[in-house]
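WARN  no MSA supplied for this record, continuing single-sequence
INFO  ligand: copper (II) ion
INFO  echoing inputs
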Amino acid sequence: MLLATLLLAAGPALAADGEMTGAPVPWGMGLQQAGGVLKRTIHDFNELVFWIIVVITVFVAGLLLWVVYRYSAAKNPVPSRTSHHSLLEVAWTVVPVLILIVIAIPSFRLIYYEDRARDADFTINVQGRQWYWHYAYPDQGNFSFDSYAVADADLQPGQLRNLTVDNPLVVPVGATVRVITTGHDVIHSFFIPSLGVQRYAIPGRALETWFQVDRAGTFYGQCNQICGTNHWFMPIMVRAVPKPEFDAWVAQAQARFAQGQAPGYPEPAPVAVASAAR
Ligand SMILES: [Cu+2]
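INFO  complex generated
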């Protein structure tokens, strides 16, 4: 947490109403603020690795300076002929192995923590498509809808360019949400930095992950697997709201998306592909 505090001196991006915005900030140097437990765990691991790197860098730089000074040609007119030192060789083999083990244990623990939801409250099916997201809520009546980026011309004041969508994912604050990803056409990737979520969306495969948002707010992400011409234009937007508000949203979403697809934005024009046979 210390590192996060140092790098993000601005503190959590909380609006006047206490809502958090999980989005990149200008000149942001560190990881995005955590909107949930997964991201906090990632912050902790990042901090552990950061301080290990600091210690190693300072130690190696110090050694180098000391060697340059102590073993310069001026100080040693007759060069040493030492070529082996068994203890040193064992040390510089064993110590890095120990350091790697210290990194590997929490690293694997984190990977398995992210891998599967325990006692999920409900599931959201996420499908990456060229170039928008398709979301389904199987546990709330199995309604589904498309989520398109809002074009610059339609952006309202306060909306984030290239991050705001027409139909965001909505989840209740505090709920454990299982996410199952698939790809419709090519490989996409479902990535929400402030929630610590990242999963490939691969055609013909179902991959699992989960997240939990611990405060109300809006959390932004993007497809982060290059998936074609409009890859840059398939953002992700998650609204975390109190449970009663979520239930109300589900009720209206069931009605609104019952007839199939919401209007959304028109599909981008297909890219002209040279049809010449090879
Ligand atoms: Cu994509």
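The longest strand covers residues 122-129.
INFO  checksum written, moving to next record
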